[in-house]
Amino acid sequence: MRAGQRLLAQDGYEVCLFPCEAMYVTNVEHGVLALDFGPRDTAGERISPMNCYAPFSGSVVYTGNDHNLILESDNLVHMPDGSLQYGRVLVAHSWIAPTLGQHFTQGQLFYKTGDYGQSTAEHLHMEIARVPKKATRKWNESGIGLYNAIHMWNGMYVNDTTILYDGDFNWHTYQGGVTPSPAGYGRKTDFPWILYYNRLRRKRR
Fold first, then answer.
1. For a designed S-S bond to 110, which of 104, 105, 117, 158 qualifies (C-beta 3.0 to 4.6 A apart)?
2. Is there a contact between 74 and 23 (Cβ–Cβ < 8 Å)?
3. pTM reported for the whole predicted model
4. Parent domain of 97
5. Residue 7 lies in a domain
6. Above 50 in pLDDT, residue 195?
7. Which residues are paired to 182 by β-bridges?
8. Does the residue 165 lie in any domain?
9. 169: Cβ contacts below 8 Å, ≥ 6 apart
10. Which helix (H) or strand (E) holds 25?
């Protein structure tokens, strides 16, 4: 997604979007469903830091020692696995300390890459979960991953994200949707749906 981008389904609920302009998967070995993403621009050049935009409108419901936070959606959100539930996104390692209770609108800058805490290189550590009726439980049994976490390619669409390296996973774009008004994006050309589906559907899960 891009800065300021918002996307609603025809029913008025937001579509959960991958929160960066470029995707470069660097690590999948966490023992949980989190992935790490390297800080790259859309041309593939390394940048520091990389901006991360709110994948949906929501509030920070947790902050931790690695400057990690959990952003929880205000309302139900659409995800690529076909679900319409509340979403939670966990991110970690920014040098900017998060603020508990802070609210973000979809597309608003809410995080940056970093190597703060238990990290050896700058990156974005991220995990996503879908939760029924904003469940109070936040962590899985191990205490290191989100409760009800799902694979990220089942939780986030990649509309307007430049795919540099996708980790060989089956990412999807959302077909259709509307831009809320006013939002700073009013022209049809503001959302050029770059379809990766024909290439990505061949990727294994």
1. 104
2. no
3. 0.86
4. 14-200
5. no
6. no
7. none
8. yes
9. 25, 151, 152, 153, 203, 204, 205
10. strand 22-27
Task: Output the pLDDT for position 30.
Answer: 73
Report the C-alpha dihedral over residues 34, 37, 42, 43, rounded to 10 degrees: -140
Tokens of residue 118, six digits: 């238990």
In a domain, 2, yes or no: no
Q: Determine the Cα–Cα distance for residues 189 and 46; give it in Å rounded to an integer.
A: 28
How many domains does one find in the chain?
1
**What are the tens digits of pLDDT across the range 157-180?**
999 999 999 999 999 999 988 888
User: What count of residues does the chain have?
Assistant: 205
Other CB atoms within a 10 A radius of the CB of residue 175 amount to 10
In a domain, 126, yes or no: yes
pLDDT score of 117 more than 60: yes
CATH label of the domain that carries residue 99: 2.70.70.10
The DSSP secondary structure of 98-123, one letter per residue, reads: P-TT-EE-TTSEEEE-B--SS-SS-B
**pLDDT band, residue 29 (cuts 50/70/90):** low
